UniProtKB/TrEMBL annotation:
It comes from the Bacteria. Keywords: DNA-binding. This is Helix-turn-helix transcriptional regulator. PANTHER family: HTH-TYPE TRANSCRIPTIONAL REGULATOR XRE, TRACRIPTIONAL REGULATORY PROTEIN-RELATED-RELATED. The lineage of its organism: Bacteria, Pseudomonadati, Bacteroidota, Flavobacteriia, Flavobacteriales. Pfam families: HTH_3. InterPro entries: Cro/C1-type_HTH, Lambda_DNA-bd_dom_sf. Residues 14-67 form the HTH cro/C1-type domain. It comes from Flavobacterium psychroterrae.
Length: 131
């Protein structure tokens, strides 16, 4: 029993790369001189002619081969293997364990706020006495 490999859907690959780039269909259409509906039709097509594929690839900043060979798994592997964070809270945000008492910090901020308000009152009183 043989398992046939699923053919690459070039239009879907174009759509995914475009979305990863944060580009709308209208912007891609304008850049390659087509209508938004034409881009929608291209993204729905399994195959795209080489001329259009090359123009789209140029606008998206990738090669035509990258569009043909695109896979979500590869992108996720690249992201997972290259993402580094100097801030552990990004990765372990749920398990954040502060090494200080948050109530102490709130109290410090409140005391600072009261001090600033006292200074403001003193300043305003000096201004009123000067007039």
């Amino acid at each position: 029993m043989s398992i046939a490999t699923k053919p690459k859907h070039i239009g879907r690959n174009i759509s995914r790369i475009r979305e990863l780039r944060g580009m709308k269909q209208e912007a891609l259409a304008f850049a390659i001189g087509l209508s938004q509906q034409s881009v929608s039709n291209i993204e729905g097509s399994e195959n795209v002619d080489e001329e259009k594929l090359t123009a789209i690839a140029e606008v998206l900043g990738v090669s035509a081969e990258a569009i043909k060979n695109y896979s979500d798994e590869t992108v996720l592997n690249v992201i997972n293997n290259t993402f580094t964070s100097n801030d552990n809270s990004t990765i372990n945000g749920v398990n954040l364990q502060p090494n200080f008492n948050p109530l102490d910090k709130i109290l410090e901020l409140y005391e600072r706020l009261v001090e600033v308000e006292k200074e403001k009152i003193e300043y305003l009183e000096r201004l009123l006495k000067g007039k």
